[in-house]
Design brief:
alpha/beta; Aldehyde Dehydrogenase, Chain A, domain 1; Aldehyde Dehydrogenase, Chain A, domain 2; seven-stranded mixed beta sheet; five-stranded parallel beta sheet; 14 helices
Length: 504
C-alpha cells in the first residue's frame, strides 16, 4: 500500500479539509512506482495555514536572529545526514540523475549554513545627525507572512533559497510546492519542523512553517489572493509570474519573481574546444534540459562551427538515458508526459515551421526500459537563425539550438535577442573579449569558460528583462527582500529640535 502524506499546518500533520488527494509517480517508471498519495488542498487549507503563520509571527519575530540562525544550522546538519536518502527520493520523484539530485540537496545544505550565519549579520546602519545631542540609526525588521510557490526542477534547492532567508529574518512561511515533487518538499518541511522543536524545546512555536499541497491554480491562487500574505516569492513560468504580480500588486504585496530563461553559450575561435563541449553537454542535457539556466542556445564562431558541431553530435549521441538512480545514466526522463509533449511540440516547430536542421535526436526514447517513462532523446538543431522560435522561446527540455556568428559583437547581439536574460556563458582565452562580454551581455549571470549552470548559494541569483522583476535570490542581496528598514531618531538634548529648521 502506498504511503499517504499530509499537510503541516500549525505544527500538526493533517489531511486536506476536503479529503481529496492526488498521486505522485516516478517519471522513469510511471506505472510501476507510485511514490505516495498527497492532499489536494483548497482555499480552506490555505486560510488555516495563513492564520497559523500570522499568529506564529507574533512570537517568531521576537526570537533573536542568531537563535533563528541556530535553527537553520541544525536544519543543515539534518539535511547533510540524510543527503543520499533525500537525493534518491528526489530522483524517483522528478527524474534527474542521482549525482544531480545530490547537488540539489547540497545547495540546500549550503544555503542553510549561509543563512544561519546571516543571523549574526543582519546589519543595520548608523548615520550622524544634523542636530546636536541626537543619534540616528536604522535596522532591519521582518515583514510578516510569506507565501512561497516553487517549481519541480529543483525541489530542495529553490525552496531553501526562499524560506531559509525568510525564516532567519523573522518571517513565517506558507509553502506551496509543485504538485510533481511533493515528497521532497515534505521531507524538507519535516526537517525544518524537527530542527525548530530541537532548538526551541518548550518554546517551540507552531505555525512558523506550514506546507499546503495541491494544484497551483487552486492553492497558489489562494495564497496570492490572501489578504494576510505579506510577501510572495515565486519561481516558474513567465505567464504565471505576470498573473501573480498583477494580483499581488493590487494589495501592494512585496513580490519576488524568478521566471523563464533562454540562455546561450558563446564559443569563440580561440576557445578550449574540449572544455566548451563538456560545458554545453552539461548545460544543455543536465537535468534533461529542465532548468531555467539550461543552455538552450549555442552560438559558435564561424571558423570553428563545423568541427565543433561534429564533435558535439558525436559526444551527445553517446549519452545514456535511463532511471537516474541507476549507475552510468547521464540523462533522466522529462518530469511528466505533458512536459515531454511540450518538448516534442517545440521540436516539430523547429523542424516544420522554423525549417532548422535536425542534427540529432528529435523523438521519444522508447527502447527497452525507456518505454516505461517519459524519456526524450537529446536533440540538436543546426542552421538556426535568431528570428526562429526555437532561438527565442523557452523549451525546458533536452533541446539545443546552434547558431553561427562571425564576431564577438555579432555573438553578443544574437545572445541578447530574446525577451529573457537569466544566465549566459562565453568560452574564450582572450581576456579583452571576456570582459567585453561581461559588460555587454544582458543577463543576470555570466560565466567565463564555464557552463550556463552552476550558481553558488552565497551569490545573487536572478535575471533581467522577462526573467524576473529585479529581485535576487541567494547571496547577501536576498535579505533586503525579506526585511524592511526602520529608521530611529534618538534625541537626548532635552528640548524639541526641528530638523531643517533649527539648524539652518
Amino acid at each position: 500500500m502506498s504511503q499517504k502524506f499530509q499537510n503541516l499546518i500549525n505544527g500538526v500533520w493533517k489531511d486536506s479539509v476536503s479529503g481529496e488527494t492526488f498521486e505522485n509517480r516516478n517519471p522513469a517508471k510511471w506505472n510501476e512506482d507510485l511514490i505516495g498519495i498527497f492532499p489536494s488542498s483548497n482555499a480552506d487549507d490555505v486560510n488555516e495555514a495563513v492564520a497559523a503563520a500570522k499568529e506564529a509571527f507574533k512570537k517568531w519575530r521576537l526570537v533573536p536572529a542568531p537563535k533563528r540562525g541556530d535553527v537553520l544550522k541544525i536544519v543543515g546538519d539534518m539535511m547533510l545526514a540524510r543527503k543520499d536518502e533525500i537525493a534518491f527520493e528526489m530522483t524517483r520523484e522528478m527524474g534527474k540523475v542521482f549525482a544531480e539530485t545530490k547537488g540539489d540537496v547540497q545547495e540546500g545544505i549550503d544555503t542553510a549554513y549561509y543563512a544561519a550565519s546571516e543571523g549574526r549579520r543582519l546589519f543595520g546602519m548608523n548615520a550622524p545627525s544634523e542636530l546636536p545631542n541626537k543619534m540616528n540609526l536604522s535596522f532591519r525588521v521582518p515583514i510578516g507572512v510569506g507565501g512561497f510557490i516553487t517549481p519541480w526542477n529543483f525541489p530542495m534547492a529553490i525552496p531553501t533559497w526562499k524560506m531559509f532567508p525568510a525564516l532567519v529574518c523573522g518571517n513565517t512561511c506558507v509553502f506551496k510546492p509543485a504538485e510533481l515533487t511533493p515528497k521532497t518538499a515534505t521531507i524538507l518541511v519535516e526537517i525544518i519542523d524537527a530542527a525548530m522543536r530541537q532548538e526551541l524545546g518548550k518554546d517551540y512555536i507552531p505555525g512558523v512553517i506550514n506546507i499546503v499541497h495541491g494544484k497551483g491554480r487552486i492553492v497558489g491562487e489562494a495564497i496570492t489572493n490572501h489578504p494576510d500574505i505579506d510577501l510572495i516569492s515565486f519561481t516558474g513560468s513567465t505567464a504565471v509570474g505576470k498573473r501573480i504580480n498583477e494580483v499581488a500588486g493590487r494589495e501592494l504585496k512585496r513580490v519576488s519573481l524568478e521566471l523563464g530563461g533562454k540562455n546561450a553559450q558563446i564559443v569563440m575561435a580561440d576557445a578550449n574546444m574540449d572544455l566548451a563541449i563538456d560545458a554545453v553537454l552539461w548545460g544543455a542535457f543536465g537535468t534533461t534540459g529542465q532548468r531555467c539556466t539550461a543552455t538552450s542556445r549555442l552560438i559558435l564562431h564561424k571558423d570553428i562551427h563545423d568541427d565543433f558541431v561534429n564533435k558535439l553530435i558525436e559526444r551527445a549521441g553517446k549519452l545514456r538515458l535511463g532511471y537516474g538512480n541507476d549507475k552510468g545514466v547521464d540523462v533522466g526522463p522529462c518530469v511528466s508526459e505533458a512536459q515531454r509533449e511540450t518538448v516534442n511540440n517545440y521540436v516539430k516547430i523547429a523542424r516544420d515551421e522554423d525549417k532548422a536542421t535536425l542534427a540529432l535526436g528529435g523523438d521519444y526514447a522508447k527502447d527497452g526500459e525507456l518505454a516505461k517513462g517519459w524519456f526524450y532523446k537529446p536533440t540538436i538543431f543546426t542552421g538556426v537563425t535568431p528570428e526562429m522560435r526555437i532561438a527565442k522561446e523557452e523549451v525546458f527540455g533536452p533541446v539545443l539550438a546552434v547558431l553561427k556568428c562571425d564576431s564577438l559583437e555579432n555573438a553578443i547581439d544574437i545572445l541578447n535577442n530574446t525577451q529573457y536574460g537569466l544566465s549566459s556563458s562565453i568560452f574564450t582565452n582572450n581576456v579583452n573579449d571576456a570582459f567585453t562580454a561581461v559588460r555587454d551581455i544582458q543577463a543576470g549571470i555570466t560565466y567565463i569558460n564555464g557552463a550556463t549552470i552552476g550558481a553558488e548559494a552565497h551569490m545573487p541569483f536572478g535575471g533581467v528583462k522577462a526573467t524576473g522583476n529585479g529581485h535576487r535570490e541567494g547571496g547577501w542581496t536576498v535579505y533586503d527582500f525579506y526585511t524592511e528598514w526602520k529608521a530611529v531618531y534618538i534625541d537626548y538634548s532635552g528640548k524639541l529640535q526641528r530638523a531643517q529648521i533649527d539648524n539652518y
